[in-house]
Amino acid sequence: MPCTEAYREHIMYTFNGYCKTVIRFAAINAWRDRSRRRQKEIPYEEYPITICGQTVILTNGDLAAALLSLPEKNREIIVLYFFGHYTQQEIGEMYGRCRSTTGYQIRRTLQLLHKRARYNSSMMDANLLKKGEDFDKLPETWVIFLTENDVMEKRLPLYPIERCFLGTGERFGDGSHILYVNGAYRGDTPIGKLMHDFSCTDAADMYYGTLEDRVRFFKESKEGIEIMCRAMEDMRNQTLKEGMINVAKKMLEDGTITLEKIAEFVGLSVDEVRKLKTDQNM
C-alpha cells in the first residue's frame, strides 16, 4: 500500500488512541495499587478525568460522573469556567469564539445537567411504582443535588425547582420536586452552617453535634473506617466504569478496532461492548 499522507495520518491517529488508552489504564492500575495500601486511614477519593488534554483529579464522585456525562468540549468549558476561574472572554479566545457564544455554551451545558435531574426524577418514578399499581400510589419524590459551587450563580443557598402553570404561577402539584443546594454558601443560617460542616475535615470545627459524632465514627473508629473504605471503593468503581464506557464509545466511533480489543482495553465484557454498539446504531 502506498504511504500516502492520509494513510500516515490514520496510523498516527490510531497509535495516539492506543497510547492514550494504555496510559489511562496504567494510571488507573497505579491508583488502585496505591488505594489497596491504604488500610488504616480514609484518604480523599480521587476521580481522574481528562480536561484539555490534562488529567484533573476530582474528589467528588457524583461531580465526576456528571462531568463525564457531558460532551468533551462542554465538559472542558464548564471546568475552566467554574473551577479554573477563567472568564467567558478568555475561554472564547481559547476556542476561537466570542464571549457571547461562550456564555451561550455555558448556559446550554447547564441545561444538559438540568436534564440529568429530570432523568433521575423519572427513573425514581419508574422504580417506585410496581407493575399494575394505580398512579395514586406514586409517592412524593425529591431529587436533591448538593453542588460544590454555585452553579446557578444567584448567590442563594437553595434553588427549588417546581412544575407550575405558566399563566397563574400556581404549582402543578404532581409530587415531583428537584432541589439544588449551593455547597459554596456560607451564610450565618442553618443551611450555611450545614454547608460549612459538609466541607470540614476536622470534626472539632463543626457546628452540628450529630455530624461531628458521625464524622468521628467514620474517621476514627476501626468499624467506621472499614465501612467508609467499602463505600468509597464501590463509588470509585462505578465512576471508573462510566469513564471506560465513554472510552469504549469513542473507540466504537473510530470503527477500526474490534469489539474484542475494545473489551480488553476498557475492562468490559464483549457482550457489554456489543450492546453499546447496538445502542449507538439505533
Task: Report what the structure shows.
With 282 residues, the chain is mainly α. Helix content is 58%, strand content 10%. The protein has 10 helices and 5 strands. It has helices at 5-36, 61-68, 72-82, 88-95, 99-128, 190-199, 209-220, 222-254, 259-266, 270-281, and strands at residues 47-51, 54-58, 141-147, 158-161, 176-182. The strands form 2 sheets. The chain has a 3-stranded mixed sheet with strand order 3-5-4, with helices on one face. Strand 1 and strand 2 (54-58) form a beta hairpin. Helix 3 packs across helix 5 (99-128) and helix 8 packs across helix 10 (270-281). The longest helix is centred in the C-terminal third of the chain and has 33 residues, at 222-254. It is globular.
Spell out the blueprint of helices and strands.
Blueprint: H1 5-36, E1 47-51, E2 54-58, H2 61-68, H3 72-82, H4 88-95, H5 99-128, E3 141-147, E4 158-161, E5 176-182, H6 190-199, H7 209-220, H8 222-254, H9 259-266, H10 270-281
Parallel strand pairs: 3-5
Antiparallel strand pairs: 1-2, 4-5
CA gyration radius, whole angstroms: 22 Å
Number of DSSP E strands = 5
Instruction: Strand order, main sheet: write it out.
Output: 3-5-4
- What is the 3D form? globular
Explain briefly what this protein structure is.
The protein has 282 residues and is mainly α. The chain is built from ten helices and five strands; from the N terminus they run H-E-E-H-H-H-H-E-E-E-H-H-H-H-H. Strand 1 and strand 2 (54-58) form a beta hairpin.
